[in-house]
Amino acid sequence: MTLLILSDSHGDLKNMATIIDREIPQAVFHLGDHDSDAARISKQFPQLPFYSVSGNCDSFCSVAPDSILTELEGVRILAVHGHKQNVKLGMLNLSMTAREAQAQLVLFGHTHQAYHEEEGGIHYLNPGSCKGYGCTYAMAYVHKGQVVRCEIKRFF
């Protein structure tokens, strides 16, 4: 299964739509900072499942959850924005949250810096920011209980 991961779109629907058209994913995760962008873009792609969490720039009346724990293709996925785990200060809180959730793939944003690392059987993946020129996004490929591959991509 091919997963597209976007974060910190801050109103840039054009980049999001172009990336979805280019990558043709089977599911999309939006990791906040303008979770309303995910709601709006999902209407353009009704055939795709969208998973969206709220970020620190989302309003207090956001309907998106703070986190999502789901399983796709037998892979346990935790999605958060990252501000509540203080990811700008390090990975310790996020790592503890991931272990507690027994996640195999942890998706987070907030830093606007693309990042991928595998540690202790857990893949940590931050797509960066999909706003503006030089935006970044991530792809994750999961199959039969395994995270097969994670990639950071740049969009110009």
Description:
- With 156 residues, this protein is of the alpha/beta class.
- The protein has a single domain, classed as Metallo-dependent phosphatases (Purple Acid Phosphatase, chain A, domain 2, 4-Layer Sandwich).
- Helix content is 19%, strand content 36%.
- The chain has a 5-stranded mixed beta sheet with strand order 3-2-1-9-10, covered by helices on one side. A 5-stranded mixed beta sheet has the order 4-5-6-8-7, with helices on one face.
- The chain is globular and about 35 Å long.
- The two termini are 25 Å apart.
Number of domains: 1
Instruction: Give the amount of beta strand, in percent.
Output: 35-45%
Proper CATH architecture: 4-Layer Sandwich
What is the third-level CATH name, the topology? Answer: Purple Acid Phosphatase, chain A, domain 2
Number of helices: 3
Short description, anyone?
The protein contains 3 helices and 10 strands. It is of the alpha/beta class and 156 residues long. The two termini are 25 Å apart.
Which labels suit this protein?
3 helices; Purple Acid Phosphatase, chain A, domain 2; alpha/beta
